[in-house]
Design goal:
globular, alpha/beta, 4-stranded mixed β-sheet, 10-stranded mixed β-sheet, 526 residues
Amino acid sequence: MPTLEWIGKDKVVNHHQEVPYRVLERQYSYDEAGQHAEDNSSENMIIHGDNLEALKALLPRYEGKVKCIYIDPPYNTGNEGWVYNDNVNDPKIKKWLGEVVGKEGEDLSRHDKWLCMMYPRLKLLQRLLRDDGAIFISIDDTEQSNLRLICDEIFGTGNFISDVIWQHSVQANGYGGKFVSQFNHTLVYSKSSQFVLGNLPRSDADNKLYKNPDNDPRGPWRAGYCVNGLYRPNLKYEIQTPHGNIISPPEKGWRWSRETMQAKLDSGEIIFNVDETAIIHKLYLSDLNGKVPENIWAGGIAGTTRQATAELKVIFDGKAPFDTPKPTCLIERIIQIASDPDSIILDSFAGSGTTAHAVLNMNKADGGNRKFILVEMMDYADSITAERVKRVIDGYGEGKKAVEGTGGNFSYYELGPVLLLPDGNLNEEVGPQKIREYVYYMETKESLPAEQSEDEPYFMGLCRNTAYYFYYERERVTTLDHAFLSTIQTKAEGYTIYADLCAIPQETLRKHNITFKKIPRDIARL
């Protein structure tokens, strides 16, 4: 498999492992009554912060649980003002590259910088995907070939699904001497072979070829092929019609064996034409479950950037506060073919919040319970991204342009402090609950159970018949001793117990299948 090399690659291939784990701090929740609800959190999330750190922060709760990811990263055209931009002298890019890549960072081209930025983020996104999930990445020609190669490396060439071409503009405006750019790419990769591409709803235009001229009780149908696509001499046989005519086989043979052909004739799925010189295979509309997606999406179907801008103007009282947004119908189309009504949808380059808008629209339309997670690193995360979602929930526009609210809710988060300090000690400012969530995840790769035992305050959960305890107090040193063991009520085959000290001999621990782990020494780093 060909791999892409660039300056700095060796520094970023495993950089996602070095990113410090930071906790997420909820700032507020917004409910469908249009109120800030400080005491209620929602499973829908909008996170403000560097998306690399935010993705790392999501792992304890969401690793392997996201069904569909859509991202619209910077296209690296040289015009964007993104954090890791094209200006070698930009303080932010120099600082980041200096920390991660080192002196080599001084020689990076803009493509090197873009790849350094994207690679660790894609690594974390891959971890967050469900085994039956898929990621959709919008990009243009500038980095499409590079993106394809690093996605092959991260997701696997066998998990490439398609390069969907989307007509983002139907305008023919351009500059002399250059091709007019009307189409973008959307690279689609699955997590594994378990992903199943869904179908799209059928429109009247899709069904126009289906008729029922013979009043078939199975409903409308259209004629399908009866000829084999490959040369099959064993499928060449004559067919006798009810009036004794003989229909010779096609050059490549029929599509079915003689027995299957006869069964289809008997059932009426295959009929003869009027003069009995040919057979007709009926393809019934009732047998179809939607429409198989094609890999070219016209702007008239999937929307355009101009339509998305017009939609933003309605939402934001006549002004579009975001350049080149994506249309909601484009994201809805992706969600339709790549998720279920109760799936988690993630967008880590959230921009104006189109993905959340699409999820809310679809939940309202079909009663689904999809959840969205949005990450936006820029300062407009609250004033544009979250504000758009609030207005979609409540309803927006006036007069003929008024749009009814979708209902729903979300919680808004900021990236909080690191959980493990550089010296290896716990950052006690994050609180015991966040520490417990992290420790339990690192032990089990599962989320900490929502319901915690009141009778056993240090018990975290039972996983694969091992009981996990985190005996931790901020104000005092804890010791695993016989007094603590006497408080354990959960029956299990084995026990893993965290504490500051252990006063029980190793032989006794082995006898009772207890593993002692010292705080903070034995807390693994994510």
